Amino acid sequence: MKLAGLLTCLLCFGLAAWAQQESDELRVNVKDLHYSTLAASARIQGDVVWEVSRAGQKLISGNALLAEASRASLATWSFPMSDHVYRVSFHFALVDGPIRRDTILIGDKFDRLFLRLFRAPTHRVVEYNACLSPPADPATSYTFEPSNYAIDVFITGSPHCSVN
């Protein structure tokens, strides 16, 4: 009976130690990476560059709002235990909605009468980006270049509309 308890204890400790071993392969998780709502509303785009090594993560360049989203994503990744320094670049880009054209009349009917007499335009065309309601689903992908230990992550989102 004592032997069975001892073997069970050793098996549990062995499984716990095996589960805590560092992985020898690169695991990238981008499915939970989303464009920050605040950054999209402020129309902030750009690149965030990190260096990841055995010593930890170091932010090289990038906007603070975008860096926070990329830092949260990096926390879910696993890197091989090696002396290599990985350069991870997050590329954030906003995709605008379709362009809409509206025709706006100039003045009231009386004003337009005089405009017609002088052969001046009585309307103007205004172009603007239409808001996507609801915003388009973000697209996220990545590439890995093993020769120089570079990982590029591409995140696209749509700007959020404040007023429809």
Structural class comes to: alpha+beta
Order of adjacent strands in the largest pleated sheet:
2-1-3-7-6
End-to-end distance: 73 Å
Shape type? rod-shaped
Please state the CA-atom Rg, rounded to the nearest Å.
28 Å
Number of helix segments? 4
Integer tally of domains:
2
State the total count of DSSP E strands: 7
Low-confidence stretches: 9-22
What fraction, in percent, of the residue positions are helical?
A: 25-40%
Average residue-wise pLDDT: 80
Q: H/E element string?
A: HHEEHEEHEEE
Overview in brief:
The protein has 164 residues and is α+β, with helices and mostly antiparallel strands. The protein has helices at residues 2-19, 37-41, 64-74, 109-117; strands at residues 46-53, 56-61, 86-94, 99-105, 123-129, 139-145, 150-157.
